[in-house]
Amino acid sequence: MTTNDDVITSDAPAAVPAPSTQGKGVSGPLVDAGFAALCAAAFAGLAALFVPKSGLVIAQYVLLVLAPLLVLLDGGF
């Protein structure tokens, strides 16, 4: 280590940054599928308002549960 008036410098090499553990910042295909499932759930909900069928309501709830599961499965691999 050398001192030069008010500046202190080190002769040691620069530290190597640790590898990133969070991926590349790009979402995978399952995230896109999760958002598509949410969009489909919204349309199923709108359709259930005008055509009250129990199948549409069940489909809406299945899509609403499926969407976050798809996003969690992606996990940034």
Structural features, described:
The protein is built from 2 helices and 2 strands; from the N terminus they run E-E-H-H. The longest helix is centred in the middle third of the chain and has 22 residues, at 29-50. Helix 1 packs antiparallel against helix 2. The chain has helices at 29-50, 54-74; strands spanning 2-4, 7-9. The chain is mainly α and 77 residues long.
Which terms would index this structure?
mainly alpha; rod-shaped; 77 residues; 2 helices; two-stranded antiparallel sheet
Short recap of the structure:
The protein is mainly alpha-helical. Helices cover 56% and strands 8% of the residues.
Topology (SSEs and partners):
Blueprint: E1 2-4, E2 7-9, H1 29-50, H2 54-74
Antiparallel strand pairs: 1-2
In quaternary terms, these chains amount to single chain
What's the N-to-C terminus distance?
A: 43 Å
What letter string, H or E per element, gives the SSE order? EEHH
Estimate percent helicity. Answer: 55-70%
- Content-based structural category: mainly alpha
Q: Largest beta sheet: what is the strand line-up?
A: 1-2
Mean residue pLDDT = 74
What characteristic shape results from the CA principal axes?
A: rod-shaped
Number of strands: 2
**Tally the helices: what do you get?**
2
Radius of gyration: 26 Å
Percentage beta strand: 5-15%
Main sheet characteristics: 2 strands, antiparallel
Query: Which regions contain 5 or more consecutive residues with pLDDT less than 50?
Result: none
